[in-house]
Amino acid sequence: MTSTEDQPTVNDTAPKRAAAAASTAVKPARKHRAPKLPGRQDWRSWPHYQAAKAGFRGYWYPVCFSNQVTNKPKQVTLLGEKIVIIRDQGTVYALNDRCPHRGVPLSCGNQQFKGTLSCVYHGWTFALDSGELVGALTDGPQSPICGKVTQQTYDVEERLGMVWIFVGDGEKPYPIDEHLPEELVSNAAVIGSRIQPREGNWRFACENGFDEGHAKFLHRTALWRMFKPMPVWNITKIVPRGRWIYRMQTEQHYDADFPGLGHWTSKAWYKVKPPSDPNQVSNLGNTAHSKEPNPVIAAQEFPGFASVCMPGILRIVYPTFIHYEFYVPVDEDNHLYVGVLAEFRKGKKVLGFYPKYLGWVRWLFHGQFSSQDKWMVEVTDAPPEKLYRPDESLLKWRKLAEDVTEERLEKLADQGIEPDPIES
Ligand code: FES
Ligand SMILES: [Fe+2]
User: Fold this and answer.
1) Atom from ligand 1 closest to the CA of residue 109
2) pLDDT at position 114 over 70
3) What are the structural domains, with CATH classification, of the chain?
């Protein structure tokens, strides 16, 4: 642009500008290469979900393995809250990790008396079960501060070899057995687990887990899938049952011709041969691998091999085992990946599980395969987003989160509890 055009205040420039505009108009139209990216700019369609950056309150979350908790206090972060956990005479307790005196973490403290935890700085001593300040050791036995301060405590349970903490808004926790996948509570199972701190928002991790499209492409290179083909594309319905929603395959295609591109297939001479009829689907696993199902797994009659429920529990069902993922919000940018692989066997048959899990399943499945998910969760950046047909799975999960949260808030309102609004 010239300086004349910058200051068009003189009338005699008008004819020149008109001529310039006319000459521009007759030029052949430039082929625009602007991106075609319509889509959703935010998640306001699901306001509770959008607000739940640091997780949904009112649930049990696993925080570490049971054998990691001793009488030495340990700090964990859950939904952005710093919590100190400690084992005393066999029972695990959890308290807010900030000493109300001067803000020092109680997890820096130590145990001077049974059933208590003392802050390392001035010796304020809290009862583990009630959180009550029962001693201020540097102010003598009659310290008047005692009984005037109560530290927040959390309900704790141990299940599946892990410590679980309930983070709510003052309500009484529901029984943890109602939180765990039903088949794990009511049947003997042998499990192998992995807990790994990971970067990325917990919602990306959960959405990745229930995402219909990604496994077929991202994980096709995983060693865990070396001999098992996965479909190239599916037709999938999302089916609710109880508190879960399921991905139910109605068609599975192991190869396809893409117009203008060519043939794309997941088949290979060294892989299991999948069925050629796309209507011959399996809803136990997604690898064309049809072993005789374990009777406990068969009895569940799962509508689909992948299911999810609040507050981010994924269940992937194969004929002989079930893989679970618990996505635990640490804070807005970090989560814990908790992978649990369960086989429903008992007696001597249990013995065969550990060499298999520790020898290769842990490394190939909970390791290399799962690290592909870890990578994607770290680099996902949404919204904005433009979803495609397989993302029906994500839409239904967000809707579930929204509906269940509405129900929870109504129940809390009946109890006179109104949680602080969370900024979205
Ligand atoms: S800061 Fe904890 S006792 Fe002083
Ligand atoms: Fe994955």
Assistant:
1) 2
2) yes
3) 59-167 (2.102.10.10), 181-409 (3.90.380.10)
